[in-house]
Design a protein that fits this description.
mainly beta; 55% strand; 1 helix; 280 residues; 3% helix; twelve-stranded antiparallel β-barrel
Length: 280
Amino acid sequence: MRYSFLLFCLTTAGPLAAQAPVPGPERDTPGPIEDNSFLVEEAYNQERGVVQHANTFSRSAGSPAWTYTFTQEWPLGGQKNQLSYTLPVARNDDPAGEKTGIGDIALNYRYQIGGGEGVRFAFAPRATLILPTGSSRRGLGAGGTGFQFNFPLSAKLSRAFVAHSNAGLTNTPRARDTFGNVAAARSYSLGQSIIWLTHPRLNLMLESTWTASHDVAGAGQTRRSTEFLLSPGLRGAIDLPSGLQIVPGLAFPFGVGGSRGERAVYAYLSFEHSFSGRSP
């Protein structure tokens, strides 16, 4: 799996969501999982008073390359506004020697429209500042400050199915390659997923992503590449009496069409809890 796709995953490891209580007599029973997907961002912010810590690990098949990310998300006053950051650590498969280190840190802000009890649609545009904390010469970062915008839309199709759609843009005006060449790099992305709520504590997932990247290929020059992936996966939820919710997940992305042959394993583990004396 190319590092450009791994970086895309790091900076779009979507904002997470708190559990929604079930209305009626069982009001204190957690509702269906509304956690984040893996490659496609869901439009659900954290609820007031609830923080989430998410860990992801992806590894390319037949390669020593891997990526780990830690994301922490906080509601800002309530569910409409959310702040988060993503800290990545990666190991690339550079032929000149494997390199491991911190990647580019992402600072995110999202504003949620819609969602909640009885509302079928949610829209949560996100703006991200990507800091050049990773070494571009070691193949661990873009080499310049970047800006990313993503527009996730979530729709409850029925009691059993939920769909999520994404459209995104990333721009790095002064990106650098491993040789130090500078050029304006950008990428465009589309994503679509469908989640099957097979059980309140278990979801089956099918995600698809398409990415077109313009990466630095020389001084003032870029090279275009595209990638199309399908990713079947599943996630579950463990609710503890303390109010802590643990959500493990696993997915198997693979390339389609011109991306055929790309395969990876994607693992996910999140912890969600109250920080204001209320249960999630």
